[in-house]
Amino acid sequence: MFKKTFTIIILLLLVLIQTSCKEVSTTEPVDTSLKGPYVGQTPPGLTAKIFAPNFISQPNIAEFTCSFSPDGNEIYFYRIHENWYCKIYCSKQINGVWTTPEELSFTTGFSAAQPHVTLDNTTMYFSWNVGNAGNLPGKDPGIYFVKRTNTGWSTPQLAGQGMYQTSSLDGQLYTTDMSTVFVNGKTYLVKVQRTNDLFTGYEKLNIQPEYGKQAHPCISPDGSYLLFDVGGGSHMFVSFKNPDGTWGEGIDLTDHGFDVAVGAAYITPDGKYLFYHFNGDLYWVSTDVILNLKSLSSLTDVDGNIYKVKKINNKYWLTQNFKATKKANGQSLQGVYVYDDNINNVTDYGRLYTWQAAVDATPTGWHLPTQTEWEDLFTSLGGAGNAGVKLKESGFAHWNSPNSGSNNSSGFTAVGSGFRGGDGIYYDLKIHGSYWGSANNASDPYCVYLYNSNSQVNYEVSPIDKTSGIAFAVRYIKD
Length: 479
Fold this sequence. Notes:
By secondary structure, this protein is mainly β.
């Protein structure tokens, strides 16, 4: 019980006590001669560094999230003071010089945190613990907003429940739904519906993994990707938006050089830099470190077809059958077919490739799964004797009955795409799914077979099929 309560408190404060090495304290004297963009700091590259040390990030106090005005002339951030009392500070660039950070006057008297300035520069949302005046579901603090006026900011108004706001250039706002955190410990990333800046509805984002533990969303200005964390302010992920508007599986950033203690992301209005908190300081780094991971979320082939990608057993697999008709260099492929020569089958089942065509079609940065990679996949799913049900799409849209027990728990989404025999005849649509791989001798084909009638996976090294003309479906793996 203590552990659950402690976790909830940490979520509300946006800080993991156990990962912070700094004590809360009073601020230190600051440099008042900083000039130029980004508080006069030299922008980082692919290596993160502390932001504005001794000015924003001070050695004896914990700073967390920040938000720039879209014109870059204001920065808002908050600090944790004694007894976890939070204050929002602001520094402005006036006549080219950044002013000493000062507490926002309209938030004094109550703990305030998580400032976010919308990208049209008209509104600032923030968390403010003024008592549950709005009778919000869950507990304080509530989300308040102020409007920009000719003389500064307006009087704060209650917007609704939530935690940690972020918005994109199209004006869409996202937050963390806190309505059930004190009921079942669950938090969700949500898209907020608003009327006159008041929160009127919440649409949960269906992003895996760790659904129900996600918090602190950070949308890119163009809305193409979303950062979040799953550890109450630590352990960060990124999800890229798919062309169909759905969200790709979250990519664990600890697999790509980020410390597990990193969290509470913010992206600058120009989309160039990622900020986050780490050990009580604000850090920043080029967003290229995130954009470089996009190929782990989707693949666009030479014909413009887009495929979803999923991490399965620590490998990134295509989750749809390949469809390209050209090599990566644009040259036409030989030995590529569509079931029954019916172009309408391409959408659901992809194309069928001879062994040589599957090799020649390989996209840059990808490869045919090796024998070892296939067999490691089967082992990770409980062995080849039952892996089929975890690989196959459930139901009867793309498999004939019985397809018993198939649940696609792996996310591989195998379909009964049939095959083209060496005799030129097509066989077993919705009955049989066959996939190419590369044998461990790096010379011969490795063949994988799934069926609607059982749960197992059959496989073999088949040198004869190198030239037999038989054509199977293809899934590639990221290098």
